[in-house]
Amino acid sequence: MYEDIIVYQGRPGAYSHLSCRKVFPDMDAQACESFVEAMERVEQGLAKLAMIPLENSTAGRVEEIYRQMPKTKLHIIGEHFEPVNHCLLGLKGSKLANIRKAGSHPQALAQCQDHLKSLDIEPVAMFDTAGAALALSQQQDASQAAIASSLAAELYGLDVLKANMQDVDGNTTRFLILSKTRKMPDFVPGKRYITSMMFKTRNIPAALYKCLGGFSTNNVNLVKLESYMAGGTLKDCSFHLDVAAHPDQHSMQLALQELDFFALDIRNLGTYEAHTFRTDHELIE
């Protein structure tokens, strides 16, 4: 029963929901109120997978995920890059020229602020994009609008008054696909892989430099490095690292030996095939 369920944070019509439908069209995508709830449902066996946003090309990283990943025992088994196409949604029959206010999540409003200003539309901050669409559908004010996905328009019976509201082309969100069961693909020469890890540094001079040195000397490409405070104190700094390699590659094994010597609490979050977005946009070779 639960093998067919994938969970996400937000309301139906959110970009996380859209990503679930694109990647796993045959699974039952179910909404959760929080990231914690979504992860816990997978941990408890109440869902098979979770679709969790990690970062956005315009708004940056989703800070809460970095705080939650050390607390969860879930594994990353895949990634998905979702282009964000913000749409200005209105009630059925409403006109763009009559819109005076638009509600949405603050990040979505920030990503559309130039377009909103040019249309003389006042932004109104709300909890999330899909929630703004739902709230709009429950009123009868044709001067109100919402900024959300085209899926939200479909679900809540709204008109798309204007697509591509985002100010910057290429606005994209990277999602992690989380599972209770580790699923490491076999290494196949010619395929591209990402390995995600967490670690802490030893209290020695140039600790981070020494941790990463093995990747450089063994020609392993680092594609992401993030620091975050994980232990409740300013001195307890942890790192999230993504590398373009598979643990079965000899160069990666040598790099990991050096990391193991200098780092503490190393955890392999998962190895998975790199999404085609990376090669299509030359993010990795």
Write structural notes for this entry:
The chain is elongated and about 65 Å long. The mean pLDDT is 94. Helix 8 packs antiparallel against helix 9 (250-262). By secondary structure, it is of the alpha/beta class. The two termini are 40 Å apart. The chain folds into three domains: 5-84 and 171-179, D-Maltodextrin-Binding Protein, domain 2 (3-Layer(aba) Sandwich), CATH 3.40.190.10; 87-162, D-Maltodextrin-Binding Protein, domain 2, CATH 3.40.190; 193-281, Alpha-Beta Plaits. It contains ten helices and 15 strands. The strands form three sheets. Strands 1, 2, 3, 4, 5 and 11 form a six-stranded mixed sheet that branches. A five-stranded mixed sheet has the order 8-7-9-6-10. Strands 13-14-12-15 form a four-stranded antiparallel sheet. Keywords: Amino-acid biosynthesis, Aromatic amino acid biosynthesis, Lyase, Phenylalanine biosynthesis. This is prephenate dehydratase. Pathway: Amino-acid biosynthesis; L-phenylalanine biosynthesis; phenylpyruvate from prephenate: step 1/1. GO terms for molecular function: prephenate dehydratase activity. One of its GO terms (cellular component) is cytoplasm.
